[in-house]
Write a structure and sequence with these properties.
Chain lengths: 251, 251
């Protein structure tokens, strides 16, 4: 079987989760950059890999696979020597991890991604900020954070479902939350600071997966700086932000 | 081991999928009805089973689980004698089933559920119709159906991913689409009409899971009659009566 190919854009949260997982697990893989801001995910070549035209996607031998959770689960099962805590063999524990990952889609992801787009990223994507959509997304995001704090992070484990080590679900969801880095600092604090367990859990996951976590998130910190400068300029001159920032449809 | 308990409301699509799966596979279970229309899912007793107050949920011995996909995977793994096609042991095939299941959340489900709510169910639930939300949901629904038709149902198999037998993904997604039965015929034709493979696939899945499929969907046909009767009453200028229809917030 040929080397695993990972098609990814590090500005996309699920792409980051897959890359971090490969690195931390010592999986030998080739990262193929699909730059969403350049529309590369819509190219015929990439459509051949993933007809849904989304990143991440992988090719492993004859298998082409999309959807980050499916990819993570596959990698954890197909490669040898992956630590059991990522996707536990024990059925009840594994089922709980599946349950959080299912919950994620319509809750944390749905809230976080739409909030970030409609408060911050839209102009960079050539779209208008949409305050109404932002306020709806905020509701979903806040309710998801509360659920994380009170239910999924219940217990002393430090990870989801009272785990003492991270699972695929921790990695996926923390990468999702990391996109809030691009928000205005005050706004980010307003949203995250009431959730102490969530903040601690982000740190735990970062620590457990460093140095890969920080390295793969570098691009996000750069984008954060860009947005900060842009906000400062806007505050000084009163002009609206330009459309020149690299935009990412799957952020 | 005690029988597995399935907490469900047959008006909820994911509840139906879990019930049909148990029946088709001869899993011994107790169905415990939690009526969403009576807000029974918000009761303290049920919150003890599922803190998210959503259906379906299962209890197997001391183990509690929610999220229908996680439940289906658990049942397919925990009970002996479940035919392999439901959740294939082969890693690549299993990974592709996961991929459809993951895709479902923010696509088909994200379109179908709000579309039905905002076109037919809202008045029955005493909510105002929201044409804008309906239009947005319709876009997602149509795009999801087109992806089903052109990508997921590509090939000569009768089921998703070219399968010759149904998987848990077929069951979950077809149960989701079945709620379109509640739409008036013109809308149904407009939305489903162009998707011939999707229609054939619904029939194949129904055939493969008879008689349980029809039995578990009976409640849906009853509600359809009620909606229709209500409409023709309104057409006759009869005052709209306060409804006693058992309608589910998780439709």
């Amino acid at each position: 079987m040929g080397k695993l190919k990972v098609y990814a854009d590090r500005m996309s949260q699920p792409s980051r989760a897959v890359i971090i997982f490969c690195r931390i697990s010592g999986i030998d893989f080739e990262e193929i950059k699909v730059d969403i801001s350049k529309g590369q995910h819509l190219s015929p070549d990439f459509t051949e890999v993933n007809p849904l035209q989304k990143v991440p996607a992988i090719v492993h031998g004859s298998l082409k696979l999309s959807e980050s959770h499916a990819i993570l689960v596959y990698l954890a099962s197909a490669f040898t020597g992956i630590a059991d805590h990522w996707y536990p063999t024990e059925l009840s524990r594994r089922s709980k991890i599946n349950s959080v990952m299912d919950w994620h889609h319509s809750n944390l992801r749905n809230g976080a991604v739409n909030y970030a787009i409609n408060t911050t990223l839209a102009p960079a994507l050539g779209r208008q900020l949409n305050p109404k959509a932002a306020s709806e997304a905020e509701k979903v995001l806040l309710s998801s954070l509360k659920t994380l704090e009170d239910i999924w992070l219940d217990g002393d484990g430090g990870f989801l479902c009272n785990g003492i080590q991270p699972s695929l679900a921790d990695l996926s969801m923390v990468c999702e939350l990391m996109q809030l880095e691009v928000l205005d600092e005050r706004d980010r604090n307003r949203i995250l600071s009431p959730y102490k367990k969530v903040l601690q859990w982000i740190e735990n996951t970062r620590t457990a997966t460093n140095p890969h976590f920080e390295e793969v998130h570098n691009i996000l910190y750069k984008a954060k700086k860009k947005f900060e400068q842009q906000r400062a300029r806007t505050a000084e001159t009163g002009t609206s932000p330009s459309n020149k920032t690299g935009g990412y449809s799957k952020i | 081991m005690l029988k597995v308990k399935v907490y469900a409301d047959r008006m909820s699509q994911p509840s139906r999928a879990v019930l049909i799966f148990c029946k088709v596979n001869g899993i011994e279970f107790d169905e415990i009805k939690v009526e969403i229309s009576k807000r029974q899912q918000l009761s303290p007793e049920f919150a003890d089973i599922n803190p998210f107050k959503k259906l379906p949920a299962i209890v197997d011995g001391r183990f509690k689980l929610f999220e229908s996909h996680a439940i289906l995977i658990y049942l397919a793994s925990a009970f002996p004698g479940i035919p392999d096609h439901w959740y294939p042991a082969d890693l690549s095939r299993r990974a592709r089933v996961h991929s459809v299941l993951d895709w479902h959340h923010l696509n088909l489900r994200h379109g179908a559920a709000p579309f039905v709510l905002h076109t037919v169910l809202a008045p029955v639930l005493g909510l105002p119709l929201n044409p804008q939300a309906a239009a947005e949901a319709e876009k997602i629904l149509i795009s999801s159906l087109s992806k089903l038709e052109n990508i997921w149902l590509k090939g000569n198999g009768r089921y998703l991913l070219g399968g010759l037998r149904p998987s848990i993904a077929d069951l979950s997604l077809v149960c989701e689409i079945m709620q379109l039965e509640l739409l008036d015929e013109k809308d149904q034709e407009r939305i489903l009409g162009p998707h011939k493979k999707v229609q054939q696939w619904i029939e194949s899945t129904r055939d493969a899971t008879r008689p349980h499929f029809d039995e578990v969907h009976k409640v849906l046909y009853k509600v359809k009659e009620i909606i229709r009767a209500k409409k023709s009453n309104q057409g006759d200028g009869v005052m709209q009566s306060r409804t006693k229809t058992p309608l589910a917030s998780k439709m």
